[in-house]
Amino acid sequence: MTTAPVSKKAPLLHRLPIIREYRKSVGLQRWMLLIGLIITALILLMAIFAPLIAPYGYSQLRDDSGAFGARVAPNAEHWFGTTVGGYDVLSRFIWGSQTAVLVMIMAVVLSLFIGVLLGLVSGYIGGWLDRILVVVADAIYAFPSLLLAIVMAIMISGGQSDMLGGILAAALSITVVFIPQYFRVTRAEVVRVKSEAFVESSKVIGASSGRIMFRHVLRNSTRTLPLIMTLNAAEAVLTLAGLGFIGFGIEPSSAAEWGYDLNRSIADVASGVWWTALFPGLAIVLAVLGLTLVGESLNDLADPRLRTRRASGGGKVQSTSVQAEQADAQTDADTGDEEARA
Amino acid sequence: MSDQKSIVAIDDLSVSFATDGGDVKAIDGVTLDVHPREVLAIVGESGSGKSVTARTIIGLLPETATANGAVVLQSKSGGEHNIVRTSGERMRQLRGQEVAMVFQEASTALNPVFPVGWQIAEGIRAHTKVKRKEAQRMAVEILEKVGIPNAAERVKEYPHQFSGGQKQRIVIAQALVQSPGLILADEPTTALDVTVQAEILDLLRRARDEFETAVVIITHNMGVVADLADRVAVMYQGKLVEQAEVHELFASPKHDYTKALLDAVPHVGMGRSRAAARAVDRAEQRGRGEALEPAVVAKGLEITYAGRFGRSGFKAVKGVDFEIYPGEVLGLVGESGSGKTTIGRAMAGLTPVSGGSMTVLGTEMLGVRERDFKPLRSDIGFVFQDPATSFNPLLTIGQNVAEPFIVHGKAENAEDAQQQVHDLLESVQLPKAFADRFPHELSGGQRQRASLARGIALKPKLLIADEPTSALDVSVQARVLELFNELQDEFGFACLFISHDLAVVDMLADRIAVLLHGEMVEEGTGAEVLGDPKHPYTQRLLASLPVPDPVEQAKRRERLHELQSQ
């Protein structure tokens, strides 16, 4: 094994998940990650500061100078124009990010915990429990998420929903579809990690199954989760938009939602009104693109075989030798002693 | 030989790799020649750059590597090619025809979904236009030459239908079929048992004598070097430190590193005096009336691995008897598949016992329940084969070593056990500061010492060591074994020491048991088993073990051939 003498620990900032990956990346991969991060960060910022940035409320139809008017082309008052219903497109573009971020968070949180826990238990314990869970997961996997979301939407709020109802419908249906994904990925990792010698060595020590599962196996099996989380979030945004588009989404008076706006703009496109469809559509594309870019680059960077590196030319011979290591250990011991004396 | 044109001339070769931690130089200014029809051994510890040197010759460096210098390959037609500057199609033509490679793991070097004959023919047809039938005929011919019986029929079989040694023969056949000028063999026998290793070394010798190829063999086993090589190149930290004829190198090594390397190689017969001294001690104890209860007693022990879907199970251990007394080291020797690891695992309660009886520290292991066995676990230590994987990579060494204390309620958390952990690290000669390091930040030898520290954490009465040094370099192995010896003296635990290396077992064990296909064929003290082996298998095992001395090894080879012809 080539093990270099240990370098000093990197500062905490450089060891944080995404920053660590960013520092590792070069070239195209770095750009992909960077663009993805910027887009995602912009959407997050937009969601957090929506009340400050948006010129009008999401359901505002008039201001002091009177009604906005329908299908007004972009101008100084309404940068992105107004919709057929008389809403300001820019404001709904911005407020829509809030809905999107909420649905992402909900979908990820709900499915992450259940999926990972089930995967851990199923993979570690195995046997008939594992078989049943795998079959169930496969069955759910085959279920179209949008159909599920429609059923959810009808169940939760009779089809026409308020903000929470719409978000829940999208988040829950996504949860159902994504639990199997978290489950499968975690289970596969757990099955791999389970046969590693360090798990056996804890068994020999006499550690309980719970301790082995949570202290030794779980943390070693979470490598690929960030990737799925980003895909999960992207899928949640798409489902919410899909719900809105087919008319099961959130009422425009309770929250701004891009899919609903797209639905309303179908007729506009034919009559040459481009701004009502372009901006919400762009918002959906950007949100999904940003997340997917982050996810894909994280995946590539996590795998040493896919990670590109700077071309190398020089470098030093690493000390891989026993003699050198002995000396190294000796000096370490010496410094240790000195510290003890001091 | 120097008047001949060398088949490969490496001139001032340097190779660097781009890694996450910056660039690393793997080879630094190596200049080396390979002459026709000679076996050149490149030796050195892992990370010394020996494999990278070989891979440069065949142009198989990964994309992250940059090579500088020149590697000039002499082709059969007389042309010269500088490999460092050759790439793509030209390199592809050279590979196989001019230079071929034999990998360490024959089982992964062969594609499992194609018949072996097809795979050999594939290599031929990649370079020369021959009819499929003709290529097949050549495949049969070469398989016969490398010693595959019934080659004409077996040529249609798949890799899994061959044994490990046969697979390596097929890989060598694949390399030989185009009669390249040079074969690179990267640790070709490391994954094989000693008896099979001897056969493969014979085959490589024939490759030189009958096929007239040059062979570059990369190995860390000095016995293999003594057996096969004509000339030896010693690499250390990316540099070539010594180059000499094999007799000269073993007789009078010049460089300090070479001397240290040769000193570190264990010989059969090194541990005999020590074992004798302890046997006297034990006899005295018995004489004083201290009747010793054996720590482990096995009687007719049977272990079966359950078969799948109604198929009958596989019996890994078939009726083995042995005893281990407190303070005694029993060395368990055997080839892969002999059931030695299974016995160790059963002793630690990792594999259930299916028949006979085994009593570990007074508890019957046949049908034992985990709940009943758990309290005993604090009295049993286990040292795993590969120290790289036996530590949780996300916990520090300190936290890992503290686990036994926490699990058995002797400490609340890792900080609580800090003092004990430091003491333990000290007893395995690791500095205290290492407790804060992560496993990947330690070298193989350091990790295995930390693993020993964890094994003896709770002062166990019984320690099971499963090939604890087989993943280590020779020089590191020597120090770990020495340490093991000291710890055994100090703590006086009973020990089952599992190894495939007779010389290692001989250094440590009081008594040696030899396993063959799940049955114990011989048991006795080191002097009895290794000095005067009774069973033909033990004799063969002992004769197959190459010794690091070319003159002595040549004699042993004769004797092995005699044994085999009997």
From TrEMBL, chain A:
Compositional bias annotation for Low complexity: 323-333
Region of interest (Disordered), ranges: 309-342
Keyword field: Cell membrane, Membrane, Transmembrane, Transmembrane helix, Transport
Membrane topology reported for the UniProt record: Multi-pass membrane protein
One Gene Ontology term, aspect cellular component: plasma membrane
InterPro entries, A to Z: BP-dependent_transpt_permease (IPR050366), MetI-like (IPR000515), MetI-like_sf (IPR035906), OppC_N (IPR025966)
SUPFAM superfamilies found in the cross-reference section: MetI-like
UniProt domain ABC transmembrane type-1: residue ranges: 97-295
Record-annotated membrane-spanning stretches: 31-54, 100-125, 132-157, 163-183, 225-250, 273-295
Predominant cellular place of this UniProt entry's protein: membrane
Subcellular location: Cell membrane
A GO biological-process term: transmembrane transport
PANTHER family (UniProt xref): D,D-DIPEPTIDE TRANSPORT SYSTEM PERMEASE PROTEIN DDPC-RELATED, OLIGOPEPTIDE TRANSPORT SYSTEM PERMEASE PROTEIN APPC
Family: Belongs to the binding-protein-dependent transport system permease family.
Stated name of the protein: Oligopeptide transport system permease protein OppC (TC 3.A.1.5.1)
Source organism of this protein record: Agrococcus casei LMG 22410
Taxon lineage: Bacteria, Bacillati, Actinomycetota, Actinomycetes, Micrococcales
Automatic annotation (TrEMBL), chain B:
Main location group: membrane
A GO MF term: ATP hydrolysis activity
One BP term from GO: peptide transport
Localisation per UniProt entry: Cell membrane
Organism: Agrococcus casei LMG 22410
Protein topology in the membrane: Peripheral membrane protein
Alphabetized SUPFAM superfamilies for the sequence: P-loop containing nucleoside triphosphate hydrolases
Record domain ABC transporter: where: 8-262, 298-542
UniProt protein name: Dipeptide transport ATP-binding protein DppD (TC 3.A.1.5.2)
Gene3D superfamilies per the UniProt record, alphabetical: P-loop containing nucleotide triphosphate hydrolases
Pfam families per UniProt: ABC_tran (PF00005), oligo_HPY (PF08352)
InterPro entries noted in UniProt: AAA+_ATPase, ABC_Ni/Peptide_Import, ABC_transporter-like_ATP-bd, ABC_transporter-like_CS, Oligopep_ABC_C, P-loop_NTPase
Keywords for the protein's UniProt record, in alphabetical order: ATP-binding, Cell membrane, Membrane, Nucleotide-binding, Transport
Gene Ontology CC terms, in alphabetical order: plasma membrane
Family, similarity comment: Belongs to the ABC transporter superfamily.
